[in-house]
Amino acid sequence: MITLNAICIAALVAIAPAIASAGTTINVKLNDKGDGMDMSKMMGLGMGMHGDMKAAPMSITVSNKFAVGGKVTFNVSNTSKSMIHEMIVAPIKDENTALPYIDAENRVDEDKAGDLGEVSELDPGKTGSLTLDMKPGKYILYCNVPAHYAMGMWAVLEVK
Ligand SMILES: [Cu+2]
Questions:
Q1: Around ion ligand 1, which residues have CB less than 5 A away?
Q2: CA pair distance 26, 153, nearest whole angstrom
Q3: pTM (2 d.p.)
Q4: DSSP label at residue 63
Q5: What mean pLDDT is reported for the chain?
C-alpha cells in the first residue's frame, strides 16, 4: 500500500504543474459585415470614442472576457470573406480612455499604446495564434488595419 500511495502521489505531483501551466485559452474572432458596409459613416467607434457600438460594422469577439494570470493563448480566426484583419494586444488603464491615435493614418499609435504581441494581417478565413505571459490587469485586443479600430474592431480582456 505504501508503494501504491507513493506512486499515486508521484503521479499527482507530475500532473499538477502541467495543469497549472496550461493557462487560459481564448478564442478570438475578427469579424466584419462584408463588402456592403457603408464605411464612411461608421467611424468614432474606438475605445473611449463613445460611438454607438451597436452600429459597428466590424468587431472582435472573445470566448472569454477574463483570463488567469500566467500563460494566455489566443487562437485567432479571421471570419471575414474579403478583408485582412489582425489582433494586437496592448495594456490599458481602463475601458473609457481612448488609445493614442494617429489621425492622419486613421489608426492607433502602436508604439505609444504599447504592443505586447500580435497576430498580424490574417487573410480572410485564416487563423493564427499567440501565447503571452500576462500579469493581472486590463488589456485591449484590437485590429490596426487603417480605420478598422475606429469601426469597432476591439475588445477588452481582464487578467485576474
Ligand atoms: Cu480589421
A1: 85, 143, 145, 148, 153
A2: 17
A3: 0.84
A4: S
A5: 88
CATH code of the domain in which 149 resides: 2.60.40.420
20 Cα to the center of ligand 1, angstroms? 33
Cα of 81 from ligand 1 centre, angstroms: 12
Angle at 71 between CA 25 and CA 84, to 5 degrees: 55
Which residues make Cβ contacts (< 8 Å) with residue 108, sequence separation at least 6? Answer: 46, 88, 99, 100, 101, 102, 142, 144, 149
pLDDT tens-place string over residues 130-141: 999 999 999 999
d(CA 144, ligand 1 centre) in Å: 6
Q: Is residue 62 part of a domain?
A: yes
Give residue-wise pLDDT tens across range 71-92.
999 999 999 999 999 999 999 9
